[in-house]
Amino acid sequence: MKSAAVAALSLAAVLVLAVTFGSDAAPLADAIAGRGYARTILLDVRLPTALLAALAGAGLASSGAAFQAVLRNPLAEPYVLGVSGGAALGATLVIALGLGASTPLGAALTPLAAFAGGLAATALVDRVARGGRGASSGASMLLAGVMVNSIAAALITVAKVLAPPARTKDMLRWLVGFVELPSPLALGLTALYVALGTALLVREAPALNLLALGDDSAAALGVDVPRLERRVLFASSLAVGAVVSVTGLIGFVGLVVPHVLRRTVGPDLRRLLPLSLLVGASALVGCDLVARVAFGLVGTKLPVGAVTALVGGPLFLRLLARGGR
Q: What is the mean pLDDT of residues 159-177?
């Protein structure tokens, strides 16, 4: 409970910072007093962007924690398993057809297409990894995920080549991972899908804990392991698909956050999943704030996907080095 309270307070603090600071001057006092420009910047631009970053971080980190529990592999995350790649392919096809999130139809259709792509990718990974054996190993699912990701990347490249130049530019910007101002409909749908997906994952936490004993022991204790794996893949596809549809591909959040928390609070998924949700939200809001403030001084913004890679990559390497010793 204490860890959850600290994580919730940290999220609230970083959200306040994300709303208060930015590349444009908008004093908080002016916004509170109702002065037009500052109020518009803080409440209509920065607040929705910060909320989107929080939703994205929560969905990616909680999905990563669930995947690592199912596969019993700390390297498992939505991107490695092909979920992000499949979701990206679904959303890319919608963008290539001219139905981006800027249109009302696109705002509703893009998350659905991303969810369908992510679910199709995870179903393919699950089927290939199981083969005719009825059971899968973590290694086989990881390898199948890498291959599905490669196929999705190739199809995305084909879509970029065939799409008109104007849409290709939008696709390239989206694929590098930006957290930009969402439309109210896109923000609402993302919140709905992420909330449903993460709620399903948290509900499965006790059963996921039993998987640490091994599939046979978990089955002896009443867990239907294949069905549990499918429920986790479905819930994760729902959350990740919604996130990818509006932010593009953002890596390392689903990998590093659960890994760090597992070393801090232990492997109990009843604590780890809610904490991953809160800490993942804080981490991505903080990375987006760094991208906006640091590079706003030179009149541009670094993709938040690059920031998470620059922060998460070295941190994960350090954790691996310490663990090896």
A: 78
Calpha distance 290→305 (Å, rounded): 12
Domain interval for residue 104? 11-324
Q: Is residue 58 part of a domain?
A: yes
**What's the number of domains the chain is made of?**
1
| 141, amino acid identity | M
- Determine the residue type at 109: L
With the C-alpha atoms ordered 276, 130, 211, 201, is the resulting torsion angle positive or negative? positive
Q: What distance, in Å, lies between the first and last C-alpha atoms of the chain?
A: 32
Q: Are 94 and 107 in contact (CB under 8 A)?
A: no
pLDDT of residue 26: 58
SS3 41: helix
Is 183 part of any domain? yes
CA–CA dist 243, 245 (Å, integer): 5
Mean pLDDT score, 42-51: 86
Q: Based on the number of CB atoms within 10 Å of its own CB, is 193 exposed (0-12), middle (13-18) or buried (19 or more)?
A: buried
Q: Is the pLDDT assigned to residue 101 strictly greater than 50?
A: yes
Handedness of CA 66, 124, 249, 55 (dihedral sign): negative
pLDDT for 325 beyond 60: no
Within 10 Å of residue 107's Cβ, how many Cβ atoms? 23
What is the DSSP code (8-state) at residue 40? I
Q: Where are the beta strands (DSSP E) in 128-252?
A: none
CA neighbor of 243 nearest in space, from 279, 301, 284: 284
What residues contact 279, with CB distance under 8 A and at least 6 apart?
A: 7, 10, 61, 257, 260, 261
The CB density around residue 248, as the number of other CB atoms within 10 Å, is 26
- CATH number, domain of 303, equals 1.10.3470.10
